[in-house]
Amino acid sequence: MQRRQFLQSSALAATAMALGQPVRTPLAEETPEARPVIKRYRNLGKTAISMSDVSFGAGNVPSGSLILRAIDRGINYFDTAPDYGPSEDHIGDALKKIKNRDKIAIASKFCRPIPYQEGVSHLQPGSSVSDYVGSVENSLKRMGTEYLDVVFVHAIGEKSDMEHEKRRLLDDNMLTAVDQLKKSGKVKYLAVSSHGPHNMEPLMQEAIASGHFDLMMIAFNFMKFPKIPDILRQAKEKGVGVIAMKTLAGAKDSGAKLDSGQFEQAALKWVLQHEAIAGLVITFKSAQDLDTYLPASGQTFTARDQHALDQYAALHGASYCRTGCGNCLGACADNVNIAAILRYNMYFKEYGEQKRAMQSYAALDQSARPCLSCATSACDAACPHGLSVTSQLQEAHRNLTLSTIV
Predict the structure, then answer these.
(1) pTM of the predicted structure, to 2 decimals
(2) What is the mean pLDDT of residues 238-260?
(3) Nearest C-alpha neighbor of 192 from the set 176, 174, 173
């Protein structure tokens, strides 16, 4: 603050105090307007949740203070999980300083913290009712809250076995546990999520038709999701709320020709122009991310935004593995889970979640080691987007393998 501003502010403050009025200085009036905030809230299906159109993905959130900053900017929906590092603990730190817990919505998942047993964090078919109930109760303990607004059956479609994924989607023990959790007031709504790579669309249609799910979260961005409109239509007919994730199409460097934040805001506005989408969840790592993403809230998608997306697609279209595509998976003779491995490499390179990415990679039944000596590169030929899949898998194996001998 300049000396003149300080003197003017002090004089105004003294006058205001004498009149018994709130203190408002020129600087205080400028600061809130300079900070982007949430400008739109949307109803989440038939639930009682009216969520901020840009909402908080708490993947390895660094601190409770960032949660509080987000709330101060108007974000009211927070997506976390037991296997998102210390995120639930940090949300708990923030909740200790919040007077109105009912003003925000918290979503978590049916899963175990990392490190976990049995190689997977998400609870699988055959898990007991007590496993499901215990997963939620442990999340509540970590966050120091009495209830979850939403609990997810998360990441449906990670395995290629369609029947296995259907069993996980509609596990009788899970549904029984949800009934118990709802009756005890520990959970309000049941949700499902998917970022593929296997059968995302038919599994989400199965979820909608079942009538068990109040909302869903799906991978959706400007790159390629031709069947999503059918899911959005069916969800709307059934009153199932829809949240979008993976909205930045890989979150790569957008290129020097764009203004800071221009691509990110364009990508978010592209998603939010779809009225059937209640809101989107995006990972926040710092206060700077609030300034980068929140200007998209409540804004119209423009020709300038489309130009930014076109530039990004031209720069990265031949290297971005489309989440949920899965067209190349049947081409690999070694049954390498190509889409999952490239997603983990995206977490490693673009999201800054190296530990989580390496742990997830280590839990896979088959690594990308065979790709190091692959002579056919059949996956390259099977990719409809022209990606050099083999070279990306080789890079992923080197990035995600702890040992120097790969």
Answers:
(1) 0.80
(2) 81
(3) 174
